[in-house]
Amino acid sequence: MCGVVASYGKNDRSVLAPMLEALHHRGPDGEGVLFLGRSGLGHTRLAILDVEGGRQPITNESGDLALSFNGEIYNHESIRSQLWGRHRFRTRTDTEVILHLYEEEANDTFARLDGMFALALAGPDGLLIARDPLGIKPLYYGECEGQFLAASEIKALPPMEKINALPAGHFLLAGEKPVPYARSFAATRPVRTPTLREAIVEVRRRLARSVTKRLMADVPVGVYLSGGLDSSLIASLMRPHLDVLHSFATGIEGAPDLKAARQVAKALGTQHHERIFTPEEVERALPEVVSRLESFDAPLVRSAVPMFFLSELASSRVKVVLTGEGADELFAGYSYLREFHQGALKAELAAIVERLQDTNLQRTDRMTMAHGIEGRVPFLDLSLVRFVARLPEEFLAASQDRPEKWLLREAGRGLLAPEILTRSKLKFSEGAGSADLMANIAAKEITETEYLRERDLAPGIRLRSREETLYYRLWKKAMGLNADPTLVGRTRDVSAAAET
């Protein structure tokens, strides 16, 4: 994983330099800057593929096209074989494959990429930026003193009047509006309706294939293991492919996740590592977590704290981790979804999948990148997402005799012990034990009077608790002049189970 910065309008290294410095944590293994015409590209590198030869920005053979890329393209070998003979490859990276594919297919390139990405591409037509269909990797842009600027994180941008998040599944040519290239989760065309048994088999097959694809790396790969259904399924599907699987769990002493993760790790034979944190450590880490997260949304911050500690632990052993992100959104894992009936459930699932780019995926990206490791999300493989989107609503809905995520539980039969397959959903912050700790911190810091005085931020944007008021104060201090609350994605509400 890496950090991307880009400019259009002036070839000014002094503008890109501080932007790159702000993204050093995203790419501690190298840094590069390149100017092409009126475009400037910068890159901080976390070396995952072709560790020695994959430096960026990278140019094509003629030098008239250059790319700065953040992400992983899991079908890059297949595309490379199609391009072989028509282009001269200098590296084994997926980055160079994107560059040469763009030479042949221009803006049709992005729909062919299977993976997660945010990129900036400089060429004869100017500067183009693009983001993957689900928004797994971030990208922001705006204008400052007549110059177009883009970066992987908001804090890397200089103060400007308006910062925009490039929407998932869009590309944009500097100076123009975003253009969609991928259909949304909700717009997936119908196909033949499978039987329930066929759906269960196909979910398992596609998830297994997704996990296998995400083992692609020239560096060690591990897994975040809470002991819940989602992460345990990922770990079980990884285990046969790796001689050594490092698993990582975190929580306060006695946290439910720690006990469950130990059980799963023992059953799978992983090399298991734990990070037990204290209330004092949570309080000390909170300002940095909010700053890195670039959000004040309360449920997101609560779960970001344990993930921050987890990523710190994992960074000492691996450079890539797989997580269970996205399973609750795909398979209706939240208890509030029981309220939706007769067509409304599929619409709500589509909406929360779309919101992931500004909520849970932002948390995963920022907390892993804070410690220089790459997080991969097998449940959000496009093949699996599109298949689940086509299923009948009754295959996904919970009922009196069917628990949340029952379809996924059925697909996991035989992979995990029954007590793990049937374990009830816990928010990450509950399972790790950070939720109560953080509520107590907020209660000490923010009075009810202060909350009521400060809660209205902008039309339609209101702080929802004393706890969120504390996070807002920390966020505003960290973001400085770029503290725009309209950029902060919101989970359904503070009490909703909108965390993974």
Biggest sheet details: 6 strands, antiparallel
User: From the alpha-carbon coordinates, what is the Rg to the nearest angstrom?
Assistant: 22 Å
Number of helices: 18
CATH class of the largest domain: Alpha Beta
- Through-space gap between termini: 22 Å
- The geometry reads as globular
Mean pLDDT: 92
- Contiguous low-pLDDT stretches (5 residues minimum) are 494-500
Relevant CATH superfamily of the largest domain: HUPs
Number of domains: 2
Which CATH architecture of the largest domain would you pick?
A: 3-Layer(aba) Sandwich
> What helical percentage do the residues reach?
25-40%
Number of strands: 19
Keywords, separated by commas or semicolons:
37% helix, 500 residues, globular, six-stranded antiparallel beta sheet, 2 domains, alpha+beta, Rossmann fold, Glutamine Phosphoribosylpyrophosphate, subunit 1, domain 1, disordered C terminus, single chain, 18 helices
Provide an overview of this structure.
By secondary structure, this protein is of the alpha+beta class. The protein folds into 2 domains: 181 residues, Aminohydrolase, N-terminal nucleophile (Ntn) domain (Glutamine Phosphoribosylpyrophosphate, subunit 1, domain 1), CATH 3.60.20.10; 302 residues, Rossmann fold, CATH 3.40.50. 37% of the residues lie in helices and 18% in strands. The protein has 18 helices and 19 strands. The chain has a 6-stranded antiparallel beta sheet with strand order 2-3-1-9-8-10, with helices on one face. A 6-stranded antiparallel beta sheet has the order 4-5-6-7-11-12. Strands 15-14-13-16-17 form a 5-stranded parallel beta sheet, sandwiched between helices. Strand 11 and strand 12 form a beta hairpin. Helix 7 crosses helix 8 and helix 7 packs across helix 18. The radius of gyration is 22 Å and the shape is globular. The two termini are 22 Å apart. The C terminus is likely disordered.
